[in-house]
């Protein structure tokens, strides 16, 4: 364990004072997945927990807001959206160098790729259907009744997000990327009028951010809420489709070129139609915009990861360097989704 990432003695002392029922000694293991907020499995002789913290070093303003992750998951505890139980939030940077929270450790399984190789056809079909069901349930949450009406500002979500991520991209820009400049301009000009839909959105909804039963297909928890806010639900839906348009394998984790029917996986349109049915929507116009928006946002996120690697603050520096090379590719895919590439 790298003591510069997590000081076990300080964590053990803090949990012993602030977490009911906690008893050490404490061991920790860093999860390999995740580039933004370092996440650890904490083990004691009696229990397992998960700790998620801000990364060390100088950070972009409003990024890595673990307090927001803690708040939204706490609010969803009694909803139809499965989330881990939140146990403790520490906003005192003096404890381990940055804010962190502790939640229950879910005993389930995750799938890094939507192909889910090794699973039965009917299992794949059921898991993707469950993924669709949970997404629709998320967008049906009454934000007023769960206390999240102020979780995001009013106004056009896409105008706000394009502005925010353009600023984040510019703040971490290391070289000029013409396609990214073109995509920012094109999205700004193509933003649809606000249609009044205002829901809780996850911001990074994909299969590897969901945990399922070990021996079943029920979702146990939606994870990684760093990008969550109040916004437009189609951004989450298009995030799923964006991921599927990537190449299969460890890096792309997509379904491009895959014979989906043979694996029991739906087409993009079938997944969209299923979602619309669950939300009683007639359909979605201008889906290319929502898809392009997701490619743009992911490009901006990857640029930030790459910049942190250059600054020495990345959770996984080697992978972060690789991700930096993806930024122009995502920008080009965004232009293609808009019909501009």
UniProtKB/TrEMBL annotation:
It holds the Pfam family APH. One of its GO terms (molecular function) is kinase activity. InterPro entries: ACAD10-like, ACAD10_11_N, Aminoglycoside_PTrfase, Kinase-like_dom_sf. Residues 28-251 form the Aminoglycoside phosphotransferase domain. Keywords: Kinase, Transferase. It comes from the Bacteria. CDD domains: ACAD10_11_N-like. This is Predicted kinase, aminoglycoside phosphotransferase (APT) family. It comes from Ruegeria faecimaris.
């Amino acid at each position: 364990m790298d003591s510069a990432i997590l000081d076990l003695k300080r964590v053990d002392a803090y949990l012993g004072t602030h977490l009911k029922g906690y008893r050490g000694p404490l061991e920790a293991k860093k999860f390999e997945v995740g580039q933004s907020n370092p996440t650890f499995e904490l083990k004691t002789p009696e229990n397992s927990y998960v700790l998620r913290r801000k990364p060390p070093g100088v950070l972009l303003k409003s990024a890595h807001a673990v307090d927001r992750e803690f708040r939204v998951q706490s609010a969803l505890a009694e909803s139809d959206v499965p989330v881990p139980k939140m146990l403790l939030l520490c906003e005192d940077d003096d404890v381990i160098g940055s804010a962190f929270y502790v939640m229950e450790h879910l005993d389930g399984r995750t799938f890094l790729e939507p192909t889910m190789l090794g699973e039965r056809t009917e299992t794949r079909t059921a898991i993707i259907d469950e993924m669709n069901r949970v997404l629709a349930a998320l967008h049906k949450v009454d934000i007023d009744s769960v206390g999240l009406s102020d979780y995001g500002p009013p106004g056009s979500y896409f105008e706000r997000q394009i502005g925010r991520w353009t600023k984040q991209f510019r703040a971490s820009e290391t070289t000029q990327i013409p396609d990214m400049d073109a995509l920012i301009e094109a999205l700004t000009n193509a933003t649809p009028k606000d249609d009044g839909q205002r829901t809780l959105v996850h911001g990074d909804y994909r299969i590897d951010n969901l945990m399922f039963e070990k021996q079943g297909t029920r979702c146990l928890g939606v994870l990684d809420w760093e990008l969550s806010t109040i916004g437009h639900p189609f951004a989450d839906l298009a995030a799923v489709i964006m991921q599927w348009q990537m190449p299969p394998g460890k890096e792309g984790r997509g379904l491009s070129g895959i014979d989906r029917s043979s694996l029991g996986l739906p087409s993009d349109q079938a997944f969209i139609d299923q979602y619309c049915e669950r939300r009683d929507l007639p359909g979605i116009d201008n889906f290319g915009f929502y898809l392009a928006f997701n490619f743009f946002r992911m490009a901006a996120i990857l640029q930030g990861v790459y910049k942190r690697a250059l600054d020495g603050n990345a959770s996984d520096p080697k992978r972060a360097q690789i991700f930096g090379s993806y930024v122009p590719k995502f920008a080009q895919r965004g232009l293609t989704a808009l019909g501009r590439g």
